[in-house]
Amino acid sequence: MPLNNSVTEFIFLGLTQDPLVQKIVFLVFSVFYVGTVVGNLFIIVTIKCSRTLGSPMYFFLFYLSFADSCFSTSTAPRLLVDALSARKVISYNECMTQIFVLHLFGCLEIFVLILMAVDRYVAICKPLHYSSIMSRQVCFTLMVLAWVGSFIHSTAQILLAFRLPFCEPSLIDHYCCDLQPLLKLTCMDTRRINLLVVLNSGAICSSSFVFLMISYFVILRSLRNRSAEGRKKALATCTSHIIVVVLFFGPCIFIDIRSRTTFPIDKMVFYTIGTPFLNPIIYTLRNAEVKNAMRKLWHMKITAEIKG
């Protein structure tokens, strides 16, 4: 805890103060969270155990599913507990930990989405050199860099949070700890820190989104000279990626770049819970290889249990 800071805990105002609505929130987001964990776990286990899903695309999809699960877990369990609690209290240390974990896996998801776009670009635009460019060693190195970049980003966020002197009452008008809602509780002029937050998180979200959109535009444009079958297969994969990118970056950019004016949409949980829930659905329903691998894997498992 930083020096000269008397605040030892924060109180969430949550999504609503209505007891009935809180119960509905608990039921709805329990389904979302369980679906997120189970769906992404299915993808993780399938990719890990399937011999047919060994390409770089599924290597990155493995880490995207892992990041999704951890990103959702950074906020969902606390949201569910608080939905049934009269007093939604979080300690200072738990709040700082939540900020770190939230930004670590949120940033990791961004970097993995970028790596998946790079992989699709090389596969579609430079197919003859795909194996040499996207080798296993290259993919592993890129993932290490993604982890390092995410750690640096989340460390920068938490260092900014540690510098904030908080005043009573320590009421957070939100359902989780993040820098933007915490800035409203400080006893200092936070314009400089708010600018740093925007430059850090906002710049990462915006520049990454622009990069991804340009990448997929180039990829889709290159498909004009492909055969109908080749275009269909590439479009199926790229469309799934583009949907995930838009669902993730839309709320992300709004939250990180907006002014400090409070909007009801600031409490939108789609960003941290809804998108991770939809990602496994999007990737499995639109990907025949993943669906076939899942069927084979679980068919073999059920058969082995019956024989055993």
UniProtKB/TrEMBL annotation:
GO cellular component: plasma membrane
Transmembrane residue ranges: 20-45, 57-76, 96-118, 138-162, 198-223, 235-257, 269-286
Main location: membrane
Subcellular location per the Swiss-Prot or TrEMBL entry: Cell membrane; Membrane
GO MF annotations, alphabetized: G protein-coupled receptor activity; olfactory receptor activity
Pfam families: 7tm_4 (PF13853)
Domain of life per record: Eukaryota
Keywords: Cell membrane, G-protein coupled receptor, Membrane, Olfaction, Receptor, Sensory transduction, Transducer, Transmembrane, Transmembrane helix
Membrane topology: Multi-pass membrane protein
InterPro entries: GPCR_Rhodpsn, GPCR_Rhodpsn_7TM, Olfact_rcpt, Olfactory_Receptors
Domain G-protein coupled receptors family 1 profile: 39-283
PANTHER family linked to this entry: OLFACTORY RECEPTOR
Protein family according to the UniProt entry: Belongs to the G-protein coupled receptor 1 family.
Identification of the protein by name: Olfactory receptor
Organism this protein belongs to: Fukomys damarensis (Damaraland mole rat)
